[in-house]
Recover the amino acids of this structure.
DNA sequence: GCACGAATAGAATATTTATTCCATGGCATG
DNA sequence: CATGCCATGGAATAAATATTCTATTCGTGC
């Protein structure tokens, strides 16, 4: 049937997968991609479920298993069941295991940040004001152009928004201060500025926000607290507080908020065009 | 049959188990003890295997399942399988429901992304390999200089790492392609490259990775799946898969991983200096 | 020590799930 | 344009697996 014996470990499986994944027919490629993306599901799902999730017929999935060198799905599943048995424990106990690896260890740190991210997300879901969010989306949907600014820790968020808007063909400009160039004069009537900053608040961001306000542009703020100086420029302020670990903060919740904002604006703009 | 409905979550399962575990006949007690001891095996084993491992007959194990409130073993196994593989199936329908309800509303979208973020984080905690993470941290701690590359959706992550390393006085260089300039020749022996890319994989990132490898530098990868082309350059690959909402993905889990990586490297480097 | 009921084991059955096979359709090659 | 090959879908079949049933055992109360 096939030129090679069945993979005996996940590593071998991975190797084989990358080896063959080029020059595979369409459906086989779908299987390969799906398996690569959701390896954890192989151990606990049936052929029918997996094939449906991958968007192929059960028989196609079977053929894929054979191409990978297994006699069939069952043999492949066996490999995954055996190798996932150890790392299986549910989320909570798994976190404890990671932590137990020692308080300074990378795994323990990761566990801390995962937990912090989860708390931040829950917090975000609880505290966000639907009306404010709605107002922000409405403003951005009407905008002639969307300007983005964020420095330091906020810069990744601004970048991501820029990427998202770009993907949805929404005109946007990232004020990234490359070469210390200043594009403030690109802010014209009818535009909207998204200003992102967290304590300690960046001077440049605040200044650009008040500049935009003075030009009569609306300002949507992504910030961290009620006492953020962005409130002073009359911005529509979305607040998101990240739980910190030691002196460090991830951006898990902030990114969820950012992508939700972007997608909401994108769909509303599309709806308006039809 | 039994006085109560089937547990709907692992927590309910645990509660019920402790409730009934006293005053149980001998074989039932054996089952209870075994299940309590090896809950992870339920999702991936058959009744025959489990009952043998617990030292009882298959039929005894069946009766245990019923005592726990399930109709049979299959229903109980389903609970364990579902709580492991996050239920993708109803994700699509949930989205459709949202749309049908006319609620492309921003708050509903945010709720979706918050949920997606949470699932991604849990998934990350479950699937990360401590050994790989350790290897990555070690490599980065030894590095003369850390190079960072990531395009499109991965760029915010690269930016954040750059910011974090900078804050900890760790020499790093972000290959941001501003002005289409290429700094590949700044990659010198003893350096390490952190390459970040998700499907569809960025050509530039892959190319820089193989360039670095050819120069004899280690490559640490942050990527999304087993079949990422970064595996082919022999990178130490940390995998993190984000749950998507429609066509969009946030970066919640990726950022938790990134910040944990950065902080771990920072503390280790500090420890080495003293 | 006997009779009764619960508990158990093992075999028989029903159901689910993997696997194979064959007919069809599309694509590239001659 | 015709021909052959390969990929694909769907249905038929085979295997594995859960589930139920019944005979037997074990313990308990009279």
């Amino acid at each position: 049937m096939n030129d090679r014996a069945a993979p005996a470990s996940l590593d071998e499986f991975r190797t084989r997968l990358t080896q063959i994944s080029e020059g595979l027919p369409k459906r086989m490629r779908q299987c390969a991609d799906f398996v690569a993306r959701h390896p954890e599901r192989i151990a606990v799902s049936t052929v029918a479920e997996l094939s449906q999730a991958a968007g192929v017929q059960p028989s196609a999935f079977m053929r894929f298993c054979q191409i990978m060198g297994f006699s069939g799905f069952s043999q492949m599943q066996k490999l995954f069941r055996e190798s996932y048995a150890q790392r299986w424990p549910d989320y909570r106990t798994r976190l404890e295991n990671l932590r137990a690896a020692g308080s300074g260890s990378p795994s323990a740190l990761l566990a801390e940040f995962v937990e912090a991210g989860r708390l931040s997300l829950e917090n975000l879901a609880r505290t966000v004001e639907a009306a404010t969010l709605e107002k922000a989306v409405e403003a951005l949907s009407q905008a002639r152009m969307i300007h983005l600014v964020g420095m330091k820790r906020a810069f990744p968020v601004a970048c991501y928004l820029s990427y998202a808007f770009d993907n949805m063909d929404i005109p946007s400009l990232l004020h990234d201060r490359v070469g210390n160039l200043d594009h403030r004069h690109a802010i014209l009537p009818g535009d909207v500025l998204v200003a992102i900053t967290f304590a300690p608040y960046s001077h440049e961001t605040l200044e650009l926000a008040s500049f935009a306000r003075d030009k009569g542009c609306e300002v949507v703020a992504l910030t961290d607290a009620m006492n953020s100086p962005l409130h002073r420029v009359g911005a529509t302020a979305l607040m998101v507080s990240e739980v910190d670990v030691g002196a460090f903060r991830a951006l898990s919740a902030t990114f969820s908020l950012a992508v939700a904002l972007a997608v909401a604006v994108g769909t509303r703009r599309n709806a308006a065009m039809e």
